[in-house]
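As noted in the main text, all predictions were made from sequence alone. Below is one such record, for Diaminopimelate epimerase.
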Amino acid sequence: MRFAKGHGTENDFVILPDPDGELQVTEETVRLLCDRRAGIGGDGILRVVRTSALGETLAPAARTAERAEWFMDYRNSDGSIAEMCGNGVRVFARYLLHAGYVRGDRFEVGTRDGAKGVVIEPNGDVTVDMGRVERQGASSAKLARQVVHGAQISVGNPHLACEVEGPVADVDLTQLPELDAEAFPQGANVEVYTETGPGVLEMRVYERGSGETRSCGTGIVAAAAAATPEGEGATWRVRVLGGECTVYLDASGARLSGPAVIVAEGETVLV
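Prediction:
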């Protein structure tokens, strides 16, 4: 099995090129590949498949993905399927260019949240149009040592973005957050953030299906949206454990911009 390894602000992924949809990617295969001691290691899997060869029926909300040649089949490190991954799209786009699957600096990537427009910036950063960000009310989560309150945000996948007092480094994210099952029947990513300066947020995240990660693109957007007064636009620099991304919010939705790199390629015998 061919693979590549890439990351966006240290949110890292095992990339599986499968243009014709021939691979059978099981939950067990994903867990093995993402294992940081027994496998390659990663927060998730990005299977690179032509949309026409995907072999599954897309939900109505994702039908726009059919206009993109390439589809990002994203799996969390526990093998579960996620609707969207912001850093994953940026790394996926970088790989498409690296492998020669696309040309130019503007194209679309298909996801389970529809087609996402991508721009390769002059400085090499990758910007993805995340679409509309939906506020869905307020909720809370019990972390290991505290209860946090925040905004329910949909960025194609569910989030609870919580502003906290003091450094985010003091928040214990070692355990699975306890969420309101009514508000989040499928679970959610939980972000804790604080504003450290004008237009600057510091954030950490517990990702559904992966645990705490060094970065989360949709989580970065969710935190920026939660920190912005409803109905207003804003630009935020969001600092995470793995680096920094920029979020642009306006009436049309959100754009996420930051670095994305391919660090390795090879073959694995894990099946």
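The first helix runs from residue 27 to 34. The mean pLDDT is 96. These features were considered when defining construct boundaries for the mutagenesis experiments described in Section 2.9.
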